[in-house]
């Protein structure tokens, strides 16, 4: 018997006893106000959250917050007046100079301020990762308390590509000093629609 086979045989003989998962995983973390918790966590990881009553208020805030930035793109039809025309059919490399990208999320998660976004809401997969400023719009009713609820939402969904996005990009590799906007969007703003 080879040494590899001996090692694998020993590993197989010394497996831990299996334990069953708890039957109900949804009751682990519940917040009385998931939106408030979402905002608090997002603030802690370097993002900003604004509660808005409708798209009119959202448009006004975008014009104020991102005044002077030239290239704004969005996949949200209600934000057509802010958005560069016919941007979606361009090659991915043409988005390298996008100042602000505004996309929708299917839902958000209060415990970690993550937002679930699939390719159908991005327009192009590269958009949320290459822009300078990322803006995500989510409905208040779609903020869940925990990741268990989130995984139940996506467990039977059909999508080609999806990702959880939480806050601006960050790294602490160098001298354990946190740097925001290191390798992707410098800032992330979330608008929560009433």
Notes on the protein architecture:
This protein is an alpha/beta fold. It has helices spanning 3-13, 34-44, 55-65, 119-122, 127-130, 147-154, and strands at 48-52, 72-74, 100-104, 107-109, 114-118, 133-139, 143-144, 162-165, 170-171, 179-180, 187-193. It has a single domain (29-84, 92-170, 178-193), classed as Rossmann fold (3-Layer(aba) Sandwich). The strands form three sheets. Strands 1-11-6-3-2 form a five-stranded parallel beta sheet. Strands 7-4-5-8 form a four-stranded mixed beta sheet. The protein is 25% helix and 23% strand.
Name the CATH homologous superfamily: NagB/RpiA/CoA transferase-like
Helix content range: 25-40%
Q: In this structure, how is the largest beta sheet organized? A: 5 strands, parallel
Query: What is the residue-mean pLDDT, rounded to a whole number?
Result: 89
What class do helices, strands and sheet pairing give? alpha/beta
List how many beta strands DSSP finds.
11
Strand order, sheet with most strands: 1-11-6-3-2
Strand content: 15-25%
CATH overall fold name: Rossmann fold
Shape by Cα distribution: globular
The CATH architecture designation is: 3-Layer(aba) Sandwich
Q: Ends: how far apart?
A: 67 Å
Low-confidence stretches: none
Chain oligomer state: single chain
The CATH class is Alpha Beta
Structural domains: how many: 1
Determine Rg (CA atoms, Å). Answer: 21 Å
Helix count from the secondary structure assignment: 6
Q: Order of helices and strands, N to C? A: HHEHEEEEHHEEHEEEE
């Amino acid at each position: 018997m080879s040494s590899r086979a001996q090692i694998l045989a020993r590993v197989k003989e010394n497996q831990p006893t299996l334990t069953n998962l708890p039957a109900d995983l949804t009751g682990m973390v519940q917040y009385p106000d998931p939106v408030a918790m979402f905002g608090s966590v997002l603030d802690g990881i370097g993002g900003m959250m604004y509660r808005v009553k409708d798209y009119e208020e959202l448009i006004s805030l975008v014009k104020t917050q991102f005044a002077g930035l030239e290239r704004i793109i969005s996949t949200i039809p209600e934000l057509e007046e802010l958005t560069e025309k016919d941007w979606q059919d361009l090659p991915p490399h043409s988005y390298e100079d996008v100042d602000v990208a505004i996309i929708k999320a299917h839902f958000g998660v209060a415990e970690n301020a993550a937002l679930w976004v699939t390719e159908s809401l991005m327009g192009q997969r590269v958009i949320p990762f290459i822009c300078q400023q990322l803006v995500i719009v989510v409905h208040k009713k779609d903020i869940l308390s925990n990741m268990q609820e989130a995984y139940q939402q996506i467990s039977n969904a059909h999508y080609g590509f999806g990702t959880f996005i939480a806050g601006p990009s960050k790294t602490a590799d160098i001298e354990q000093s946190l740097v925001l906007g290191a390798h992707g969007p410098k800032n992330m703003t979330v608008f929560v629609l009433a």
